[in-house]
Amino acid sequence: GNSVTQMEGPVTLSEEAFLTINCTYTATGYPSLFWYVQYPGEGLQLLLKATKADDKGSNKGFEATYRKETTSFHLEKGSVQVSDSAVYFCALFPSGGSYIPTFGRGTSLIVHP
Amino acid sequence: DTEVTQTPKHLVMGMTNKKSLKCEQHMGHRAMYWYKQKAKKPPELMFVYSYEKLSINESVPSRFSPECPNSSLLNLHLHALQPEDSALYLCASSPIDRSGTEAFFGQGTRLTVV
Q1: How confident is the model at residue B95 (pLDDT cuts 50, 70, 90)?
Q2: pLDDT at A101
Q3: Closest Cα to residue B89, out of B11, B27, B17, B16?
Q4: What does the alpha-carbon distance between residue A77 and residue A17 come to, in Å, rounded to a whole number?
Q5: Rounded to whole angstroms, how far apart are CA atoms A92 and A84?
Q6: Is B27 within 8 Å of chain A by CB?
Q7: pLDDT one-digit tens code per residue, A25-80
Q8: How confident is the model over B41-53, as a mean pLDDT?
Q9: How far apart are CA A44 and CA A37, in angstroms?
Q10: Do B96 and A99 touch (CB under 8 A)?
Q11: Nearest to B32 by CA among B68, B64, B62
Protein backbone atom coordinates (compact mmCIF):
# COMPACT_ATOMS: atom_id res chain seq x y z
CA GLY A 1 0.00 0.00 0.00
CA ASN A 2 0.88 3.66 -0.09
CA SER A 3 2.68 5.34 2.79
CA VAL A 4 4.27 8.68 3.69
CA THR A 5 7.03 9.04 6.25
CA GLN A 6 7.82 12.38 7.84
CA MET A 7 10.50 13.35 10.27
CA GLU A 8 9.41 13.47 13.87
CA GLY A 9 8.93 16.84 15.49
CA PRO A 10 8.73 19.22 16.98
CA VAL A 11 11.21 21.21 14.99
CA THR A 12 12.22 24.29 16.96
CA LEU A 13 14.00 27.16 15.18
CA SER A 14 14.86 30.77 15.70
CA GLU A 15 13.40 33.37 13.36
CA GLU A 16 15.31 33.65 10.04
CA ALA A 17 16.76 30.13 10.36
CA PHE A 18 16.73 27.65 7.46
CA LEU A 19 14.02 25.00 7.55
CA THR A 20 14.01 21.45 6.19
CA ILE A 21 11.26 18.96 6.94
CA ASN A 22 11.93 15.56 5.41
CA CYS A 23 9.28 13.51 3.65
CA THR A 24 9.65 10.20 1.83
CA TYR A 25 6.95 8.10 0.27
CA THR A 26 6.12 4.62 -0.94
CA ALA A 27 3.65 4.27 -3.80
CA THR A 28 3.23 2.51 -7.09
CA GLY A 29 3.17 4.49 -10.28
CA TYR A 30 3.43 8.26 -10.28
CA PRO A 31 1.60 9.84 -7.36
CA SER A 32 1.06 13.56 -6.92
CA LEU A 33 2.72 14.99 -3.81
CA PHE A 34 1.53 17.73 -1.50
CA TRP A 35 2.41 19.71 1.58
CA TYR A 36 -0.46 20.89 3.74
CA VAL A 37 -0.17 23.31 6.65
CA GLN A 38 -2.43 23.44 9.69
CA TYR A 39 -2.36 26.52 11.90
CA PRO A 40 -3.67 26.18 15.47
CA GLY A 41 -7.42 25.70 15.59
CA GLU A 42 -7.81 25.57 11.81
CA GLY A 43 -8.30 23.06 9.03
CA LEU A 44 -5.68 21.93 6.53
CA GLN A 45 -4.56 24.34 3.82
CA LEU A 46 -2.67 23.34 0.73
CA LEU A 47 0.81 24.86 0.87
CA LEU A 48 2.31 23.51 -2.35
CA LYS A 49 2.19 20.58 -4.70
CA ALA A 50 4.07 18.74 -7.44
CA THR A 51 2.47 16.35 -9.87
CA LYS A 52 5.44 14.76 -11.66
CA ALA A 53 9.08 13.92 -11.17
CA ASP A 54 11.48 16.90 -10.92
CA ASP A 55 8.61 19.35 -10.51
CA LYS A 56 9.21 21.99 -7.88
CA GLY A 57 6.27 23.30 -5.90
CA SER A 58 6.62 26.69 -4.22
CA ASN A 59 4.48 29.07 -2.20
CA LYS A 60 5.07 31.75 0.49
CA GLY A 61 8.84 31.12 0.39
CA PHE A 62 8.45 27.35 0.87
CA GLU A 63 9.73 24.94 -1.76
CA ALA A 64 9.75 21.18 -2.34
CA THR A 65 11.04 19.15 -5.28
CA TYR A 66 9.56 15.83 -6.37
CA ARG A 67 12.50 13.42 -6.45
CA LYS A 68 11.48 10.09 -7.88
CA GLU A 69 14.93 8.53 -7.59
CA THR A 70 14.93 9.05 -3.81
CA THR A 71 11.11 8.98 -3.42
CA SER A 72 11.31 12.21 -1.48
CA PHE A 73 9.53 15.56 -1.27
CA HIS A 74 11.39 17.54 1.38
CA LEU A 75 10.00 20.92 2.44
CA GLU A 76 12.43 23.84 2.69
CA LYS A 77 12.32 27.53 3.52
CA GLY A 78 15.30 29.83 3.57
CA SER A 79 14.21 32.11 6.42
CA VAL A 80 11.36 31.14 8.72
CA GLN A 81 9.11 33.56 10.57
CA VAL A 82 7.21 33.22 13.84
CA SER A 83 4.02 33.14 11.76
CA ASP A 84 5.21 29.88 10.13
CA SER A 85 4.67 28.04 13.41
CA ALA A 86 2.19 25.30 12.52
CA VAL A 87 1.91 21.58 11.80
CA TYR A 88 3.02 20.50 8.33
CA PHE A 89 1.65 17.37 6.66
CA CYS A 90 3.17 15.65 3.65
CA ALA A 91 0.60 13.79 1.53
CA LEU A 92 0.27 11.87 -1.69
CA PHE A 93 -2.56 11.27 -4.09
CA PRO A 94 -2.05 7.98 -5.91
CA SER A 95 -2.13 7.65 -9.66
CA GLY A 96 -4.18 5.18 -11.64
CA GLY A 97 -7.74 5.92 -10.64
CA SER A 98 -7.64 5.89 -6.83
CA TYR A 99 -8.42 9.28 -5.35
CA ILE A 100 -7.86 8.66 -1.64
CA PRO A 101 -4.96 10.68 -0.19
CA THR A 102 -2.39 9.26 2.21
CA PHE A 103 -1.01 11.58 4.90
CA GLY A 104 2.21 11.58 6.86
CA ARG A 105 2.14 11.90 10.66
CA GLY A 106 2.71 15.66 10.58
CA THR A 107 5.66 17.69 11.82
CA SER A 108 5.15 20.50 14.29
CA LEU A 109 7.26 23.61 13.64
CA ILE A 110 7.86 26.12 16.42
CA VAL A 111 9.64 29.35 15.50
CA HIS A 112 10.92 31.59 18.29
CA PRO A 113 11.53 35.33 17.87
CA ASP B 1 -15.27 29.40 -5.29
CA THR B 2 -12.63 27.06 -3.85
CA GLU B 3 -14.10 26.75 -0.39
CA VAL B 4 -15.36 23.89 1.65
CA THR B 5 -17.70 25.26 4.31
CA GLN B 6 -18.36 23.41 7.53
CA THR B 7 -20.93 24.22 10.18
CA PRO B 8 -20.93 24.59 13.09
CA LYS B 9 -17.37 25.60 13.96
CA HIS B 10 -17.75 24.43 17.53
CA LEU B 11 -20.17 21.93 19.07
CA VAL B 12 -20.60 20.73 22.63
CA MET B 13 -22.97 17.80 23.08
CA GLY B 14 -23.98 15.41 25.79
CA MET B 15 -23.69 11.68 25.38
CA THR B 16 -27.45 11.29 24.86
CA ASN B 17 -27.80 14.10 22.31
CA LYS B 18 -28.31 13.85 18.57
CA LYS B 19 -26.59 16.43 16.42
CA SER B 20 -25.41 16.85 12.83
CA LEU B 21 -22.33 18.30 11.20
CA LYS B 22 -22.73 19.89 7.79
CA CYS B 23 -20.33 20.36 4.89
CA GLU B 24 -20.88 22.17 1.60
CA GLN B 25 -18.79 22.71 -1.55
CA HIS B 26 -19.61 24.21 -4.92
CA MET B 27 -16.52 23.19 -6.87
CA GLY B 28 -18.25 20.31 -8.64
CA HIS B 29 -16.13 17.76 -6.79
CA ARG B 30 -17.66 14.31 -6.84
CA ALA B 31 -15.57 12.86 -3.99
CA MET B 32 -16.29 14.03 -0.45
CA TYR B 33 -14.66 12.87 2.75
CA TRP B 34 -15.08 12.93 6.51
CA TYR B 35 -11.94 12.85 8.64
CA LYS B 36 -11.44 12.79 12.40
CA GLN B 37 -8.38 14.52 13.81
CA LYS B 38 -7.02 14.36 17.32
CA ALA B 39 -4.57 16.99 18.55
CA LYS B 40 -1.14 16.88 16.90
CA LYS B 41 -2.11 13.80 14.82
CA PRO B 42 -2.79 13.40 11.10
CA PRO B 43 -6.39 13.26 9.91
CA GLU B 44 -7.92 9.76 10.09
CA LEU B 45 -10.20 8.87 7.23
CA MET B 46 -13.74 7.94 8.32
CA PHE B 47 -15.94 7.93 5.20
CA VAL B 48 -15.67 8.60 1.48
CA TYR B 49 -18.53 9.37 -0.86
CA SER B 50 -18.06 9.17 -4.60
CA TYR B 51 -20.86 10.30 -6.90
CA GLU B 52 -23.07 10.64 -3.80
CA LYS B 53 -22.66 6.98 -2.87
CA LEU B 54 -20.78 5.72 0.17
CA SER B 55 -17.65 4.06 -1.18
CA ILE B 56 -15.49 3.73 1.93
CA ASN B 57 -16.37 3.26 5.58
CA GLU B 58 -13.22 2.81 7.65
CA SER B 59 -14.92 0.63 10.28
CA VAL B 60 -16.45 3.65 11.95
CA PRO B 61 -18.85 2.96 14.87
CA SER B 62 -22.53 3.22 13.98
CA ARG B 63 -22.99 6.20 16.31
CA PHE B 64 -21.55 8.15 13.34
CA SER B 65 -23.90 8.13 10.36
CA PRO B 66 -22.92 9.91 7.13
CA GLU B 67 -25.32 11.20 4.52
CA CYS B 68 -24.79 12.77 1.11
CA PRO B 69 -28.10 14.36 0.02
CA ASN B 70 -26.66 15.80 -3.21
CA SER B 71 -23.36 16.47 -4.94
CA SER B 72 -22.70 19.64 -2.91
CA LEU B 73 -23.66 18.55 0.59
CA LEU B 74 -22.31 16.09 3.09
CA ASN B 75 -23.67 15.52 6.57
CA LEU B 76 -22.43 13.57 9.56
CA HIS B 77 -25.15 12.58 12.03
CA LEU B 78 -24.03 12.00 15.59
CA HIS B 79 -25.86 10.00 18.23
CA ALA B 80 -24.87 8.61 21.63
CA LEU B 81 -21.27 9.69 21.33
CA GLN B 82 -18.56 9.01 23.89
CA PRO B 83 -16.11 11.49 25.39
CA GLU B 84 -13.31 9.89 23.35
CA ASP B 85 -15.12 11.02 20.21
CA SER B 86 -14.15 14.60 21.06
CA ALA B 87 -11.96 15.79 18.18
CA LEU B 88 -11.76 18.08 15.17
CA TYR B 89 -13.96 16.73 12.36
CA LEU B 90 -12.80 17.74 8.92
CA CYS B 91 -14.67 17.59 5.65
CA ALA B 92 -12.80 17.54 2.36
CA SER B 93 -13.61 17.27 -1.32
CA SER B 94 -11.69 16.48 -4.48
CA PRO B 95 -12.31 15.76 -8.13
CA ILE B 96 -12.47 12.11 -9.05
CA ASP B 97 -11.77 12.39 -12.74
CA ARG B 98 -8.69 14.62 -12.71
CA SER B 99 -5.21 13.49 -11.71
CA GLY B 100 -2.70 15.77 -10.02
CA THR B 101 -5.24 17.69 -8.00
CA GLU B 102 -5.54 18.02 -4.28
CA ALA B 103 -8.17 17.60 -1.61
CA PHE B 104 -9.71 20.84 -0.37
CA PHE B 105 -10.42 20.94 3.34
CA GLY B 106 -12.92 22.85 5.41
CA GLN B 107 -11.99 24.59 8.64
CA GLY B 108 -13.44 21.78 10.69
CA THR B 109 -15.94 21.37 13.50
CA ARG B 110 -14.40 21.21 16.97
CA LEU B 111 -16.58 18.65 18.78
CA THR B 112 -16.59 18.21 22.54
CA VAL B 113 -18.62 15.37 24.06
CA VAL B 114 -19.46 15.86 27.72
Answers
A1: confident
A2: 87
A3: B11
A4: 9
A5: 22
A6: no
A7: 999 888 999 999 999 888 899 999 999 999 999 999 999 999 999 999 999 999 99
A8: 94
A9: 6
A10: yes
A11: B68
- Chain B residue numbers with beta carbons less than 8 Å from the beta carbon of A101 are 94, 102-103
| Cα distance between residue A80 and residue A78, in whole Å | 7
> How far B85 CA lies from chain A's nearest CA (Å)?
17
How does the average pLDDT of chain A come out, rounded?
Answer: 93
Starting at the edge strand found earlier in the chain, the sheet holding B18-25 runs B4-7, B18-25, B73-79, B64-70
Contact across the interface for B95 and A100, Cβ inside 8 Å: no
- Res B99 pLDDT > 70: no
Is A103 within 8 Å of B102 when comparing Cβ atoms?
no
A45 touches chain B (CB under 8 A): yes
